[in-house]
Write a structure and sequence with these properties.
Elements lengths: L4 E2 L8 H5 L1 E6 L9 E6 L2 H13 L2 E6 L20 E12 L5 E16 L9 E6 L7 H21 L4 H10 L3 H12 L3 H8 L4 H17 L13
Parallel strand pairs: 2-4
Antiparallel strand pairs: 1-5, 2-7, 3-6, 4-5, 5-6, 6-7
Helix pairs in contact: 3-4, 3-5, 3-7, 5-7
Length: 234
């Protein structure tokens, strides 16, 4: 029988954890700060990784593979190139299935820059030395305007969604600052991995807000009978 466990209050990652962080390389997934990412872990090497991570306190990250990784997909020992910015966080819930697979839920904490990959060991997964990235948040009237615009757009999109709209609105209401809200919307609404990675690499909240507002404008334009919310051209 599976045994669900949880880390209910994820703490920030320590310097020690950042110095040897296990990273899960994926072709099309991005972990944004203060968002949740559910993952199904089935490959043997990553089952070992998750088991080790749980024993060590839950700290891990997700990094997107660079194009061309497909050539290495059948080589368990390959170390295909990854992007230089990743999302890190902690496992806040997991369920180990009877056959050894894991269902995990990651909670993002912050963006990190990859300094270098650590030398290979007997562990079948990869560890990296990473450093936290400083973020430039918006303040004052510009922040208020950005929050209002994103809230307005997200509301219109949520109302047009066939499912998940109420959950999106609840999550949106909890964001306190523009950068945080932009990350949440990027995680929830952007389906293009390359664009998500681009947004993850933006440490300036102003740039992320501009990019996510433009993406939401396009979504709204493609909804029947919908028009962009006021404020898109501000």
């Amino acid at each position: 029988m599976s045994q669900p466990e949880a880390f209910f209050s994820p703490a920030p990652l320590t310097v020690e954890e950042l110095s040897r962080l296990p990273l899960f390389p994926l072709p099309s997934s991005v972990l944004f700060p203060k968002t949740f990412l559910p993952l199904h872990i089935f490959e043997p090497r990553y089952r070992i990784m998750v088991s080790t991570v749980i024993k060590e306190g839950g700290a891990m990250g997700v990094v997107m593979l660079k194009p061309g990784h497909e050539a290495d997909q059948n080589d368990a020992n390959a170390r295909p190139p990854v992007n230089k910015v990743a999302g890190c966080g902690r496992i806040v819930h997991y369920n180990e299935l009877a056959d050894g697979r894991f269902m995990i839920l990651l909670r993002g904490t912050n963006r990190v820059a990859i300094e270098r990959e650590l030398p290979a060991t007997q562990e079948p997964f990869r560890r990296f030395l990473v450093s936290g990235l400083l973020e430039d948040e918006m303040h004052g009237g510009l922040a208020e305007q950005a929050m209002a615009t994103m809230h307005n757009c997200a509301t219109q999109i949520a109302l047009a969604m066939s499912e998940g709209g109420p959950e999106l609105l609840k999550a949106v209401s909890m964001a306190k600052v523009p950068g945080e809200l932009a990350d949440l919307l990027a995680s929830a609404l952007i389906g293009e991995p390359e664009l998500q990675q681009n947004l993850l690499e933006m440490t300036r909240a102003t740039a992320r807000v501009e990019k996510i507002v433009a993406a939401m404008a396009e979504l709204l334009l493609n909804l029947p009978g919908q028009r962009p919310a006021p404020g898109f051209d501000n």
